């Protein structure tokens, strides 16, 4: 892919912002749907990049931890107008859902709605959405018996020892197993890519990524600062998510519910509401931050959870050709992806299922919502609205 040096001007940045915020207002359906919207807008309509370039960028975003659709959007903006273009593209795509979830969290704090039936309905929506995500991911992440065994290992490990360290350990062990089992997997020939980002900038971003990841926990212990602890928790969650936005759920649950910062009910209510808004699922952090520290906390949490994704995509772009050609690295990632599926199934059982499906009528509503997603292919926002109405009706019986 031959790219010209990006033109950084107010006009180009404004164009990127307008296009990305329109996508942020209309992109419902999760990361896979988002990639479809991006393809239609950036490849077919705007012709900012060709089919091969887009496919290569999507492959990179799937390879890295973090929210895939957001990283693709950042990458497209960076190709168009450098690092600043990536920042503007990210802001445009993310801002609508961040604002919506901050307002939702403020509404919950202003009114006593703890016993509202529609909140129960939103918790049941989470059951349907995660079940649908698990089934969809299983086809791609665990197609053979070896990877199914890794899924089972991750599931059992995270159910028996429910700590954040367990999840990291499971991912590392799965990476080693994947490396051993799949290091000789045959590769298809792929073309080269060229990005308008220097290796010096890429190296600086990668150093920042790992520097924050390793030194924030130390700074947290030394300072005892609430804000440093909050930043560390969201940053670490954003750094360790492989396999899609839904996987951030168990990481955030361990960081904030298990430690007592948030109630389980508030956590699952926000997760259900996140399904109703367009844009990336990672904006769930905006809701969590607002519940803990008002709208400033919402913006702070959003910055912290997305920062790793930005540093990684900008940092790896200049080195992607050499990295993706390494079969051993790809083998490790195959193992990690299978472990991610096991972690997600574990989170599906607890806290999602155990706190939402209490009676037979709860399961009935979950079955209806799942059918709307999986079989009737209805948009997620409609499923959320149906869940809220259904929860209100169930409260009457």
TrEMBL record:
Task: State the Gene Ontology terms under molecular function.
Answer: chromate transmembrane transporter activity
Q: Where in the cell is it found?
A: Cell membrane
Where this protein primarily resides, as one coarse class? Answer: membrane
Q: Which domain of life is it from?
A: Bacteria
Topology relative to the lipid bilayer, per the entry, is: Multi-pass membrane protein
Keywords in UniProt for this one?
Cell membrane, Membrane, Transmembrane, Transmembrane helix
Segments spanning the bilayer are 16-38, 83-106, 118-138, 150-181, 201-222, 234-252, 295-320, 332-358, 378-396
Q: What does the entry list under GO cellular component?
A: plasma membrane
Regarding protein family, the annotation reads: Belongs to the chromate ion transporter (CHR) (TC 2.A.51) family.
Q: What is this protein called?
A: ChrA protein
């Amino acid at each position: 892919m031959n790219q010209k040096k990006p033109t950084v001007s107010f006009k180009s940045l404004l164009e990127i912002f307008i296009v990305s915020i329109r996508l942020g207002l209309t992109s419902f359906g999760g990361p896979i749907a988002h990639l479809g919207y991006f393809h239609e807008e950036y490849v077919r309509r705007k012709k900012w990049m060709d089919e091969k370039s887009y496919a290569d960028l999507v492959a990179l975003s799937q390879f890295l931890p973090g929210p895939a659709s957001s990283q693709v959007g950042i990458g497209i903006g960076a190709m168009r107008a450098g690092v600043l273009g990536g920042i503007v593209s990210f802001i445009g795509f993310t801002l609508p859902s961040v604002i919506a979830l901050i307002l939702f969290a403020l509404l919950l704090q202003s009114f006593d709605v703890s016993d509202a039936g529609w909140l129960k309905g939103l918790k049941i929506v989470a059951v349907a959405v995660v079940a649908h995500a698990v089934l969809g991911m299983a086809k791609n992440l665990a197609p053979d018996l070896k990877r199914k065994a890794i899924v089972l290992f991750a599931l059992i490990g995270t159910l028996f020892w429910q700590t954040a360290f367990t999840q990291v350990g499971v991912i590392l062990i799965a990476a080693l197993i994947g490396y051993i089992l799949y290091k000789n997997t045959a590769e298809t020939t792929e073309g080269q890519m060229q990005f308008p980002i220097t290796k010096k900038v890429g190296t600086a971003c990668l150093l920042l990524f790992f520097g924050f990841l390793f030194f924030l926990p130390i700074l947290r212990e030394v300072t005892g600062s609430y804000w440093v602890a909050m930043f560390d928790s969201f940053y670490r969650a954003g750094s360790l998510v492989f396999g899609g936005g839904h996987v951030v759920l168990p990481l955030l649950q361990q960081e904030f519910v298990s430690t007592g910062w948030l109630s389980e009910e508030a956590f699952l209510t926000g997760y259900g509401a996140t399904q109703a808004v367009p844009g990336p699922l990672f904006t769930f952090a905006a809701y969590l931050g607002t519940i803990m520290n008002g709208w400033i906390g919402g913006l702070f949490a959003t910055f912290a959870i997305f920062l790793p994704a930005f540093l990684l995509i900008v940092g790896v772009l200049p080195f992607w050709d050499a990295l993706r050609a390494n079969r051993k690295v790809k083998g490790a990632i195959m193992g990690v992806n299978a472990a991610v599926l096991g972690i997600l199934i574990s989170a599906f059982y607890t806290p999602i299922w155990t706190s939402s499906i209490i009676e037979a009528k709860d399961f009935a509503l979950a079955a209806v919502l799942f059918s709307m997603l999986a079989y009737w292919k209805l948009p997620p926002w409609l499923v959320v609205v149906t869940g809220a109405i259904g929860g209100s009706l169930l409260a009457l019986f």
